[in-house]
Amino acid sequence: MVAAVACLANGRCGCNAGAGTTRQAIATGQGHPVKGKRRGSAANGGPASVTDQQLAAAVADVIDPELRRPIGQMGMLRAAAVAGRAAQVLVALPSNDWPAAGHVSHAVSEAGRALDGIDDVVVEFTVMDEAEQSTLRAQLIGDPAATAGTQAGHGHAEGREVPFAQAGNKTRVLLVASGKGGVGKSSVTVNLAIALAQRGTRTAVIDADVWGFSIPRMLGVARPPTVIDQMVVPTEAHGVRCMSMGFFAREDQPVIWRGPMLHKALEQFLTDVFWDEPDHLLIDLPPGTGDISLSLAQFLPRSEMLVVTTPQPAAQKVAQRAAQMAGRVNLQVRAVIENMSWFTGDDGKRYELFGSGGGQALADELEVPLLGQVPLVPQLRAGGDEGMPIAAADPDSETAGVFQDMARLLCEEHLPTRRYNEGLKLL
Could you give all domains of the chain from N- to C-terminal order, each with its CATH number? Predict the structure, then answer.
């Protein structure tokens, strides 16, 4: 079916539909071309006890789960008309493949039927044109043509600033680092992010391990992110939004990039993605102290570092280098996390397969707290392979409890510290 409905905003949204009332547009067949799915029946009967304006006000507050904003505020609600006890609503989706279309359709139908006097609601879709998508992008993450500053953390090829580096930004950025691979850094990142989200905080993860990306698989994210006018809307799983090179390369495809290309990719992850001001942003760094770590230190000068190690003395010594790198680029090491601390056998005894004390020794040397010790359990590995991290799959387990404790400590005790700025002087 192709229907036509006039623009609810009388063209102020930037669409090409003519101004006029919704009822006139339905009668004359003028206005927005609609391409979408019917929801419910359009049976008419009895006098309308609800006005078009009342219907529009009711459905305008429906939240789009991808944008986390009311559809009325985002210019997605284009028309609402009542005929008898039936209603018709037109919604403009940001893209043809908009993943929240089904949710929005159901929520709009429910909001309409909640009105006394409405029995049936037909929800139909159109798609925003390029100009409307550009307006939406500017509304959500700013104008790409805006002028940026020149200080550290300001630069962007299109001229926009890194939002997390701006004064007043409340997102706490945690860089999760390790000196070497194989210590379970990505697994720790994913489960800690889920534990933070379970506390009700808005949490996001950037998989900055460009060569060894694994976060999408660990979170069980099957679909790629949605793109609106070169703005990326990240995917979400287990309450955590994520962005990874894994969305842009096959799992078996090597990423062979030099420093400048890596720098640009990370910059786009920070500036061209609609993160929606999360409370916590965890960034899974590649092992070691290479270009990516240096770039992120430049982009995010107020970020903090969590260093992941195992109890093994050799791993602890290598992890120390990552911490020393943080000090050289003026980043604060917030805490140490010890992974694979022990294995509990069927006899109930703990077996320290990789030795003991490495995490505490590193924490003591860095003069930071040991945030937690994560047991070595098969479910931790299996959950990452299957897209069901243990923090989500078995929240009552001992291991999930460790991540919950670490999340609590980060939120309640090990808070960001204020730094003295030599550039600020009292007159």
Answer: 4-128 (3.30.300.130), 163-412 (3.40.50.300)
